[in-house]
From TrEMBL:
InterPro entries: ArsI/CadI-like (IPR049789), Cadmium-induced_rsp (IPR052393), Glyas_Bleomycin-R_OHBP_Dase (IPR029068), Glyas_Fos-R_dOase_dom (IPR004360), VOC_core (IPR037523). Residues 4-120 form the VOC domain. This is ArsI/CadI family heavy metal resistance metalloenzyme. It comes from Aquirufa echingensis. It holds the Pfam family Glyoxalase. It comes from the Bacteria.
Length: 168
């Protein structure tokens, strides 16, 4: 049994800005707009995505969303169109991300949600090194955790315990 259509619902801080962005990104107007709410029904891919205006519930850095396209030509056409609309935040052609060789571009909505549009060429045995270090935000790999730096506090006799006092 398969699901006929996927549904995603995102909280947004400014519905008008989000509707403007997503109408441009999806290339179609919202299917429904009500106070504090907008919905798009996409046929290809089969997706229902709704936006609920609620700034307190917007959560940054949850990951990213994306669309895989079927051909290099479709990827190129979508990239050209997104460039013309001024919504491309990053382009990556022939990159190895998530252990796959891909051509892709990224766009970011008004609340910082990253969208990836990509064409999958083939599986790979490695990720580009920059994903492991400086720019993991634009790939599905977690960023390398920075090791905490230890700081040695200055000890002043006025606020330190006397040996044998039992305070430490």
């Amino acid at each position: 049994m398969s699901f006929p259509r996927m549904h995603v619902s995102l909280y947004v801080s400014n519905l008008a800005a989000s509707v403007n962005f997503y109408s441009t990104f999806f290339g179609q107007p919202a299917t429904k707009i009500k106070p504090g709410y907008a919905k798009y029904v996409l046929d290809s891919p089969s997706l229902i995505i709704s936006f609920i205006e609620n700034p307190e519930r917007v959560q940054a850095n949850f990951g990213h969303l994306g669309f895989q396209v079927e051909t290099v030509e479709e990827m190129t056409n979508r990239l050209v169109q997104a460039r013309a609309q001024g919504i491309v935040s990053k382009e990556e052609i022939g990159t190895s991300c998530c252990y796959a060789v891909q051509d892709k571009f990224w766009t970011t909505d008004p609340d910082g949600v990253q969208w990836e549009v990509y064409y999958f060429h083939e599986d790979a045995e490695f990720n580009d090194p920059h994903y492991a270090a400086q720019d993991a935000s634009a790939c599905c790999m977690p960023p390398v955790a920075e090791k905490p730096k230890l700081k040695i506090a200055e000890i002043q006799s006025a606020n330190s315990c006397a040996p044998g006092s039992g305070c430490c």
